[in-house]
Request: fold
Amino acid sequence: MAYRSLRAFLDRLEKAGELVRVREPVDPVLEMAALADRAAKQEGPALLFENPRSGRFPVAMNLFGTRRRTSWALSCEDYDEPARELAALLKTAPPQGLWEKLKLLPKLGKLASLTPKHVSGGPVQEVVEREPDLSSLPVLTTWPHDAGPFVTLPQVVTRDPESGARNVGMYRIQVLGPRRAALHWQLHKTATAHYRAYKRRGERMPVAIALGGDPALTYCASAPLPPGVDEYLFAGFLRKEGVALTRGVTVDLEYPADADLVIEGFCDPAAPLVREGPFGDHTGYYSLADDYPVLEVTALVHRRDAVYPATVVGPPPMEDLWMGNATGRLFLPMLQLVFPEVVDMSFPTAGVFHNLCFLSIRKEFPGHARKLMHGLWGSGQMSSTKTLVVFDEDVDVQDHAQCAWRAFANVDARRDLVVVDGPVDVLDHAAPAFALGAKVGVDATRKWAEEGGREWPEPCVHPPELLRRMDELYQRLVPGAAAPARMKLPLSPAASWTPKRSGG
Ligand SMILES: Cc1cc2nc3c(=O)[nH]c(=O)nc-3n(C[C@H](O)[C@H](O)[C@H](O)COP(=O)(O)O)c2cc1C
Reply:
């Protein structure tokens, strides 16, 4: 079910006992972040700060703080459901390029209703302020050494001046003055490509920063869709209803008519850049100050009863873990179109998404794991994954303890590590140069003879029938015992435990 507003989502959370109203005055400077950090670390409730010490709107935090709430935010009971739907849909689409298929989504008959709709006005424009003061918003300062207040859950809408394609990205915004802000779109992101295109053309770049509305829209701004694929179309697919878009009052851009607030403005690529940061980031460290483009604000529009959404990122686990986890599930079917050998994929929390990815594959030839690594390092945002660990299909990559056991056991450091140089995440402070450094691939599959494997032993497991009988007995002996975590068994017939030979 699609939500008409952020308040509609909050109502649902409240009815389910998943929302706590904070009536005490709490400061957007550090206090809200510290409280939300605690809630996020304990998979606690969403928080609605009704009386911020500064700022004229209530603040909603920890909206995505559990798998359940993130699923509800995406209009489903569990985000494996839309992942399965997407997988089925992609199988029926004509076999063109990966993203061509996504662009085709609305053309697939019943999905036509999922494309964005165009309306005029809308709840988000109930109040139009042409000389706004951003300091009237409850913008959070989240960590002690942050350079100032940052908008942390925005949908930044821009347009490619050449193709006209819209992009929606989640890039933090540092408030610098009443009508001035810094735009932290990083080097490899789509809005940066738009910025470069406006610069080449010598034109000002319109920007709209939407906040709130249906939380599926907020999630989609963070989703790694490639340039040219509209995040609001993807949101329509998730919420099973097209997103209503309205035109800006001072910028020629469309944004969600049901959003809570929108900051409109322009970025002049000819203007000097401005110092942005430091900012306590999702790596758990402060990202270093650097130069970024400036937004000159031309209007603030908002609902009369707007709610300002925010998040705190920092040492994991934080709520963005669940947004990243949803992305891992939703994007697996798309990844499998290009890499059909991939069985499953997981991003362990401590890897803060771009530092570590586990994959299991149906290995079919010597060097298969390496082929996949190089393919991923050449694909969109996966290209900045610092560590890729590839397992055989019988390893459950969602079970990170099992992965550690298997990887430590199966890897010979000299033979099985692949180190490559290339672009890395802008936030990687360990890289010797800005956004450029090394990435490592770990081939944790069983090694075939051609790969230098000797005889490969089997992991120890009891036969399934014996396990079933002994589990029953144990349950009688220890009533109420939890089901044991076991290896993914029985193994699929393809995964032989005898050493494999190519072609064998
Ligand atoms: C809470 C949160 C904050 C983020 N902040 C930034 C940011 O400040 N700058 C940035 O480039 N990416 C940031 N990201 C990651 C981008 O939103 C993500 O890479 C997205 O896919 C980019 O979209 P694009 O491919 O349209 O550029 C953030 C993600 C989350 C979940």
